[in-house]
Amino acid sequence: MIDFLSILNAIISGILIGSVYSLVAMGLSLIWGIMDIINFAQGDYMMLGAFITYWMLVLAGIDPLISVIISFAIIFGVGILTQALVIDRIVEAPFVSQVVSTFAILLIIRYGSEAVFGPYTRRVETWYTGITYNIMGIILPLPEIIAFIISILVTLILYIFLNKTYVGIAMQAVSQNRDAAAILGINIKRMYWFAFGIGVGITAIAGTLLSTFYPIYPEMGAFFTFLAFVIVVFGGFGSIFGSYVAGLIIGISETVSALFILPTWKDVIAFLIFVIIILFRPTGLFGVKTSS
After folding, report:
1. Residue 212 belongs to what H/E stretch?
2. Is pLDDT above 60 for 231?
3. Helical H runs in 61-120?
4. How far is the C-alpha of 141 from the C-alpha of 288, rounded, in Å?
5. How far apart are CA 195 and CA 232, in angstroms?
6. Backbone phi, then psi, for 264, in 5-degree steps?
7. How far apart are CA 163 and CA 198, in angstroms?
8. Distances in Å between the alpha carbon of 40 and those of 97, 105, 107, 138, 275?
């Protein structure tokens, strides 16, 4: 029997896991909003972040709470390298060329990782793995609480960066009017490097956090890439705040719906939400209609 406490637990669980969904979507939203590039490999950069965390722990004993910074730094560098070698050459290319290029990056990362690491599932075991708190019947897993807190901190840092620093404001100027930004002396290519590097770096943070309570395997990015697209559309194209809120809503919708339908069907909810958004609110929750 489903009671109020079960629903409350599902909502809280949805908020906790949804905060990780939000980080993946925020990275995609940043790249999409500033560069107008759809990165189909977003979830695979998340997977790399998870594997970096795993090997840092296994080989050097570095806890994920510390390797989260290392994971961001490494994938930030990989992102800038990807931007310089590939994305810079397709920014002005036709949409189909952009799609094919980022999909090719997806294939290289995903199946390159499978060739190197094997198709096996791995798990990160830390001192806080499996620790849960029971507060008046409300179950709070410690790894997910930590992920939620860090996701809020990352969101706040990103907000401050975009609105209070020269680089962040310059990136927003590029997203609004590339030509005007260039006239004002902003280095467009450098802003693109920052946008892509930070966008995939944030996703790597999500991978690190996810690895503390979710199995790691080379193809794990596929599902999270889809979720990221749903969340970005739901929250509104280019809206960082919208992506965070939408991620929480998607997380809640999945966990609550799992109480009423078979757990194997809960992912269908994300598809249904996506269709409903496209039909009734194509600009998303915080999107703004633009005149053609």
Report:
1. none
2. yes
3. 64-85, 95-117
4. 37
5. 16
6. -70, -15
7. 15
8. 13, 8, 10, 37, 19
Task: Answer whether 245's CB lies under 8 Å from 151's CB.
Answer: no
The rounded radius of gyration (Å) of the Cα atoms in the chain is: 19
SS3 148: helix
Summarize the confidence of residues 144-158 as an average pLDDT: 96
Helix, strand, or coil (residue 53):
helix
Phi-psi region of 127 (alpha: psi -120 to 50; beta: other; left: phi over 0): alpha
Asked if 198 and 89 count as a contact pair (C-beta separation under 8 A), the reply is no
pLDDT at 287: 66
In angstroms, the CA 176 to CA 196 distance is 17
Note the Cα 185 to chain centre separation in Å.
31
Q: What H or E segment, with its residue span, contains residue 122?
A: none
Amino acid at 95: F
pLDDT per residue over 248-271, tens digit each? 999 998 888 888 877 667 667 777
Question: To which residue do tokens 């980022």 refer?
Answer: 102
Query: CA 76 to CA 23: how far, in whole Å?
Result: 14
Distance CA 232, CA 227 (A): 9
CB 214 within 8 A of CB 259: no
The model carries a pTM of 0.92
Domains of the chain, CATH where assigned: 4-280 (1.10.3470)
* Confidence at residue 288, expressed as pLDDT on a 0 to 100 scale: 52
| 30-51 per-residue burial string, b: 16 or more CB within 10 A, e: under 16 | bbbbbbebbbbbbbbbbbbbbb
What does the block give as tokens for 43?
A: 């979830």
Residue 233 in tokens: 């559309």
Q: How far apart (Å, rounded) are the C-alpha atoms in residues 144 and 232? A: 22
pLDDT in tens, 37-65: 989 999 999 999 999 999 999 999 999 99
